[in-house]
Design a protein that fits this description.
Layout: H1 11-38, E1 42-45, H2 52-60, E2 65-70, H3 73-79, E3 87-90, E4 103-109, H4 118-128, E5 129-140, H5 147-159, H6 167-170, H7 178-187, E6 190-204, H8 207-217, H9 220-227, H10 230-245, E7 250-263
Parallel strand pairs: 1-2, 1-4, 2-3, 4-5
Antiparallel strand pairs: 5-7, 6-7
Length: 264
């Protein structure tokens, strides 16, 4: 579905504001720490989104040259003026217009799941990777293992029992088999060094904020619009999340895999 990889209009801002702290910021700090330990000079980030990991990389490696890329022009346009210390470009991870062996580190935080041909993306990463370079990326574990997405899934099933949207389960949390991940990385010409399952905690400002983040700031939005009033469905999902997660600021466990690979 084209909508599965589409962000437009106000979506990047809502996504960054509501889901950044809830889902992505904890892993961005971990990724930046791992990247800093490698001391790369030239970094390529794929599927950089709103720049949550980019900003962490800039803080951790202020002297490095960082090229942040994303397929979605709306994401790049929103992030570029806000995340300084990196160069921003619109780019397709499956077909990079970049020279061979031009980066010491290729990173991707929670973007690989969206690539339609993952082996091809890994081949492109391997091509632009310098000798002894590293690929470092994160992907989500299954939806049941992360509190906020799991609560969302239950809320969608309650609000739309006859036809709940499958985007969150099918795409962000649909690439959670470590054996398949390792096989795809190897087929892309890379050698897997580690596949580590990592549980961290995210923080959301409220159940309402989570509902807005998921329903208005991700491609779930398009599936909801096909099923009725976006506002009414967002309100109903917010009420469901409130009943499941409680009031006020929320914290929840998140589970993901951190993968490190190098040129085979």
């Amino acid at each position: 579905m084209a909508g599965d990889v589409t962000w437009s209009g106000s979506m990047p801002e809502i996504y960054d504001r509501e889901l950044g702290p809830a889902l992505f910021a904890p892993y961005a700090e971990d990724l930046a720490r791992r990247a800093a330990a490698l001391a790369p000079q030239r970094i390529l980030e794929l599927a950089a989104g709103t720049g949550i990991a980019t900003a962490a990389l800039v803080r951790a490696l202020p002297a490095a040259s960082i090229l942040a890329t994303d397929l979605n022009e709306a994401m790049v346009s929103w992030a570029a003026p806000r995340i300084h210390g990196a160069t921003w470009e619109t780019a397709d991870a499956l077909s990079l217009d970049l020279p061979d062996a031009s980066f010491d580190l290729v990173v991707c935080q929670f973007g690989v799941m969206f690539f339609p041909d993952k082996a091809m993306a890994f081949r492109e990463a391997a091509r632009v990777l310098a000798p002894k370079g590293t690929v470092l990326f994160t992907v989500w574990d299954t939806v049941e293992t992360s509190g906020f997405p799991a609560a969302l899934g239950a809320s969608l099933a309650a609000v739309l029992p006859d036809d709940p949207p499958t985007f969150v389960v099918r795409v962000p949390h649909g690439y959670a088999d470590p054996d398949q991940i390792a096989a795809d990385v190897a087929s892309g010409g890379l050698q897997v060094l580690t596949v580590e399952r990592l549980v961290l905690r995210g923080s959301a400002r409220s159940a309402r904020g989570l509902a807005e983040g998921f329903c208005l700031g991700t491609p779930l939005r398009f599936a909801l619009e096909e099923r009725g009033s976006l506002k009414a469905l967002t309100d109903a999902i917010a009420e469901q999340l409130l009943s499941r997660l409680g009031t006020g600021q929320l914290e929840g466990d998140l589970a993901a895999f951190v993968v490190t690979a190098t040129a085979a």
